[in-house]
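Need a sequence for this fold. Nothing fancy.
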């Protein structure tokens, strides 16, 4: 077997897991709120069953609430502090067991990280009075010793409800700046009683939680404990030397499996849910250190994306189990494909954070840029392979067009994809040219491989005319022509400025600048990626970014923004906020303050206009006059992001009659 260690059964306490692969917890948004708390749905059960069927050894579900009075994160959270949850957990256990995997449920109290939209401000509690990270303007109330005892007991009662529901083990969330972590961290715990001060005192709450679980569930019920090995919040945060002591105590206190994570919601760098610039395995030293001080098994969450790397971690003593959430969200068959040595067929997560945006703020159901089926498992039907060789043209080789072509090919249509440029990927390709988003290329590779496997004919460097398409006699046309840079009419001179260029020209390498003064207009992610490439130290450019909003990347994900801005800060890129561009010419940029109305002039050698894109629309609405079946997808329908592109291409392909 290629991955012998990865597929060797592993023991966690009294439990045997069929392999060393653990799907880590993440919110799905697939539960539904009810009168007494969150409830499982067919969508949630199908989501977990799909991944159990895909071969993972164990699944740790999204969190369940241990105290709905002071610890609410979502109205959709299953209330493990109420007996109705026993039946809910039984449904989850059955779904996961049907696929041969073991089931853990994560239980948690968020402390200061509770949801400020649904929990009264007076109910926010923590080890000490600290500002809530998620509820602006809220300062927590310090828990009394009696209240601490009560909450610890609620952890035990919650674990017992899991046990009664047939869940194989309990997973305690003691990381990511939730309540247990708030006690452990000297930065957040400022108490002077027996729960503060020394590390032993700060770990007392965790000890009481574990004692309560053993008291309620007995000595044989498997306990998994997630802790942040390193806090990554600065020099006064919790560091690995302290955490190693807690690891040893946790083993003594009855933990069967350590799940070693990092950081949390208060970390600027998002080291707990990493953006794309982080390398695979970057925090592998944390679980390896844990293994050197404990005798119980250790699970590593270390941004693992490939089975070969997972096997390497196991072979070199970094971990005993390999954990990931996003790898199995991106490809529910990750484990099965690894077992069958089909690494080439795995859809790798590109760390774009789309899933995090959808599920971390309770704003909707789970979504994935590279897996358009994610969250829809309960609705899926077998692919209708009725294409019967009917000819379909796909115009445009971006992610929407590639996804559509691949699925149509799998359905048996005779598909030809046309791309006017010499490369595939569209906007995703441009993003992959940025150092921070090089993983975007993985999606392009995956979609091109699928198209080839499904018999799609790919023609690059060619933009067909309507006459060309008619001559081929296409049954249907998928218009995925994509988007082009927006050159706004409201900026005087933008359509004729001799020193103005657009992002594609730079990201494709058509132009290159050295020792120039460059102004990038617009701080969306494309503008930031352009600024990153232009500001590389070796080029000697001075780069300034102009943004009319008071924030950088005002509509972007915070983790992605922090990730790239850190690089730009090191590259000495200057950000000018609250500046509206009014005019450009060969001398530079003319601006005015959106706050005071004052006018400014900024001389420069190069201007990069990066304020968005518009649909390319190369056929100007003529396609529909010549073909009965025309479907617009991706940016050609409406400029959006990768997830919307792949989802629209997938939907068009499965719904074509």
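Here you go.
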């Amino acid at each position: 077997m290629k991955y012998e260690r990865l597929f060797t059964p592993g023991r966690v306490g009294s439990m045997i897991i069929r392999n060393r692969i653990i799907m880590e917890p993440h919110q799905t948004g697939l539960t539904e709120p009810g009168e007494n708390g969150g409830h499982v749905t067919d969508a949630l059960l199908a989501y977990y069953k799909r991944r159990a069927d895909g071969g993972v050894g164990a699944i740790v579900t999204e969190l369940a609430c241990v105290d709905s009075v002071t610890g609410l994160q979502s109205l959709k959270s299953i209330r493990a502090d109420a007996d109705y949850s026993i039946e809910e957990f039984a449904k989850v256990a059955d779904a996961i067991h049907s696929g041969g995997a073991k089931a853990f449920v994560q239980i948690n109290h968020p402390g200061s990280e509770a949801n400020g939209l649904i929990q009264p401000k007076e109910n926010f509690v923590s080890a000490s009075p600290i500002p809530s990270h998620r509820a602006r303007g809220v300062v927590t109330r310090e828990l009394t010793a009696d209240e601490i005892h009560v909450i610890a007991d609620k952890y035990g009662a919650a674990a017992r409800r899991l046990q009664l529901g047939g869940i194989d083990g309990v997973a305690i969330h003691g990381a990511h700046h939730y309540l247990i972590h708030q006690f452990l961290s000297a930065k957040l715990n400022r108490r002077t009683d027996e729960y503060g001060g020394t590390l032993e005192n700060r770990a007392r709450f965790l000890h009481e939680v574990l004692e309560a679980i053993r008291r309620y569930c007995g000595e044989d019920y498997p306990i998994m404990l997630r802790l942040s090995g390193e806090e990554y919040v600065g020099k006064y945060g919790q560091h690995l030397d302290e955490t190693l002591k807690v690891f040893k105590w946790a083993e003594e206190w009855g933990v069967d499996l350590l799940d070693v994570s990092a950081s949390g919601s208060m970390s600027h760098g998002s080291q707990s849910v990493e953006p794309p610039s982080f390398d695979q395995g970057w925090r592998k030293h944390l679980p390896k250190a844990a293994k050197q001080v404990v005798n119980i098994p250790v699970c590593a969450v270390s941004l693992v994306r490939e089975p070969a790397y997972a096997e390497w971690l196991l072979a070199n003593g970094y971990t005993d189990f390999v954990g990931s959430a996003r790898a199995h969200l991106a490809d529910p068959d990750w484990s099965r494909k690894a077992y069958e040595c089909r690494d080439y067929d795995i859809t790798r997560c590109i760390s774009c954070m789309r899933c995090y945006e959808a599920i971390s703020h309770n704003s909707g159901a789970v979504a994935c840029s590279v897996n358009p089926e994610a969250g829809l498992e309960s609705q899926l039907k077998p692919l209708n392979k009725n294409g019967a060789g009917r000819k379909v043209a796909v115009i445009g080789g971006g992610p929407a067009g590639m996804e559509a072509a691949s699925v149509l090919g799998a359905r048996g249509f005779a598909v030809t994809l046309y791309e006017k440029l010499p490369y595939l990927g569209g906007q995703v390709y441009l993003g992959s040219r940025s150092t921070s988003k090089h993983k975007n290329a993985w999606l392009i590779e995956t979609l091109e491989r699928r198209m080839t496997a499904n018999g799609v004919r790919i023609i690059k460097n060619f933009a067909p005319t309507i006459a060309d398409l008619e001559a081929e006699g296409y049954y249907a046309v998928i218009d995925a022509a994509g988007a082009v840079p927006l050159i706004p009419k409201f900026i005087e001179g933008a359509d004729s400025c001799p020193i103005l260029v657009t992002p594609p020209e730079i990201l494709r390498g058509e132009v290159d600048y050295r020792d120039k003064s460059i102004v990038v207009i617009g701080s969306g992610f494309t503008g930031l990626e352009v600024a990153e490439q232009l500001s590389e130290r070796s080029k000697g450019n001075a780069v300034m970014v102009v943004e009319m909003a008071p924030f950088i990347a005002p509509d972007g994900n915070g983790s992605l923004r922090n990730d790239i801005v850190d690089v730009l800060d090191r590259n000495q890129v200057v950000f000018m906020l609250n500046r509206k561009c009014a005019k450009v010419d060969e001398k530079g940029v003319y601006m005015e303050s959106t706050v005071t109305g004052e006018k400014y002039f900024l001389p420069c050698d190069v201007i990069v206009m990066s304020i968005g894109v518009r649909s390319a629309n190369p056929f100007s609405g003529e396609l529909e006059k010549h073909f009965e079946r025309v479907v617009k997808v991706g940016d050609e329908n409406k400029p959006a992001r990768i997830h919307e592109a792949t989802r629209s291409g997938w939907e068009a392909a499965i719904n074509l009659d």
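For context: The chain has a mean pLDDT of 95.
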